[in-house]
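Lab notebook, bench 4. The sequencing result for the construct came back, and we need a structural model before the next group meeting so we can plan mutations. Quick request posted to the team channel:

Model the 3D structure of this chain.
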Amino acid sequence: MSLATDQNPPEASRPRRGRLRATLVAALAIVFVGTAAGFAGFIAQLRGAESKPAGHADGIVVLTGGSSRVSDAMELLADGYGRRLLISGVRPTNGASDISRSLSDNQSLLSCCVDLDRSAVNTRSNAAETRRWAHERGFKSLIVVTSNYHMPRAIVELSHAMPDIELIPFAVVADKWRDEPWWTNGATVRLLLSEYVKYVAAEVRVRLADVGLDLVPEFAEQPTGSLPTHRPATAEAN
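Done. Here's the predicted structure in token form:
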């Protein structure tokens, strides 16, 4: 009787362990499905082709980091889509002459209608400096220029920083994005996954702040990157 009694507890614990294992597997499955669905929704937001803004705005802001962002923003300024342009996130080591050389066809606009923000180091500080710039000039609407994969997070940060200003996205689409599907290139997949994680973190922080729980310090991130440059089909990365 004593031996039988000693063997009963392990037998009785097996159903509990089974239920715990099943609960854990179900929870992991829900997290995986939720993450996959969220990533699919993020990808669905990304434009695959550039199109001119639907309307004009008081000003234009371009967030540096990706190829052709600044030149596209200058084209919008030259076409009269905004009265003034802020280039946010200019490296402190870059002088106005460096930008002038890279945009030699727009010298008159650079001298009259372009402001440089050298203090922003990430998307959140881009938003803070853009808010200051727009409020100082009394702007009520802005065209936002950045890469398509960065646009969702940029709009989250900018709209939170200045809810009183209308934001009109202009997504820059790199040649890499148009040349091949994003899922066929490992570097592009990693970039998008990284950007999705930052986007979710920004959404969470902003929602907490909206209910008075701004407990997260400025999100540590690298300056906004760019899509990897296109390599020949024979390159090792492919």
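The radius of gyration is 24 Å.
Will bring this to the meeting.
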